[in-house]
Amino acid sequence: MLDAPGMQVVGEASSGASAIQRAAELEPDVILMDVRMPDMDGLSASRIIKESHPGISIFVVTSFSSVDYLQRAISSGASGYLLKGMGRDTLVNSVRLVRDGGSVFEATLLRRVLTGIGYDPSASEAMRELSERERAVLRLLAAGQTNREIAEAVGYSVGTIKNTVQAIMEKLGVSDRTQAAVLAVRSGIFAPEEDAAVRRSN
Questions:
Q1: Which value, in Å, is the radius of gyration of the alpha carbons in the chain?
Q2: Burial level of 201, CB count in 10 A (0-12/13-18/19+)?
Q3: Containing domain of residue 183, as a range?
Q4: Which pTM value belongs to this model?
Q5: Does residue 142 form part of some domain?
Q6: Which of 49, 70, 103, 197 could link 143 by a cystine bridge, Cβ 3.0 to 4.6 Å?
Q7: Comparing 15-24, 46-55, 76-85, 151-160, which segment has the lowest mean pLDDT?
Q8: Which of 56, 83, 114 represents a domain boundary (last residue)?
Q9: Within the chain, what is the greatest distance between any pair of CA atoms?
Q10: Picking from 72-76, 85-89, 99-103, which range would have the lowest pLDDT averaged per residue?
Q11: Average pLDDT value over all residues in the chain
Q12: Residue 194: which of 158, 148, 141, 123 has the closest Cα?
């Protein structure tokens, strides 16, 4: 059991289908999801959960070091993807980060995914909808910064940044921060080589 101050395990599920049901019943802040599960794989279940409950954060914890799985996790709306075997402190801190609106992805896999994303003119066009402040926030978001870290970097309150991030997602037509980050790469306003600031697990 994952047990830490301010954190409570409210339920468990043994299959993708039951995870969907339990998510509807319990509406947790964060769901730890595996990839391979009975009845329905965890990534398909994640997509369904995010469509019905966009406020729930999905954190994939798996033994599969797969770029394909990571791409599917991002497409399904997951806010995290880390490999099993991490230390307890890393897991607890990562869950808290995801709960607070951040994202945590296995650094090597994420870099390969971002590097494989090409320029998309339509994504660049979408960025025209954003103000200069929103574009600056999006760059920091794409670099893996949390709302609190972004607030400290640009000198605004956490509440203002939270509202700004929500406005960015609405203007871009995406439902989560990771999809916004992918659009930032596709548009060219954030490059994978800037990933020195991307959050890594230790």
A1: 16
A2: middle
A3: 118-197
A4: 0.65
A5: yes
A6: 197
A7: 76-85
A8: 114
A9: 48
A10: 99-103
A11: 84
A12: 141
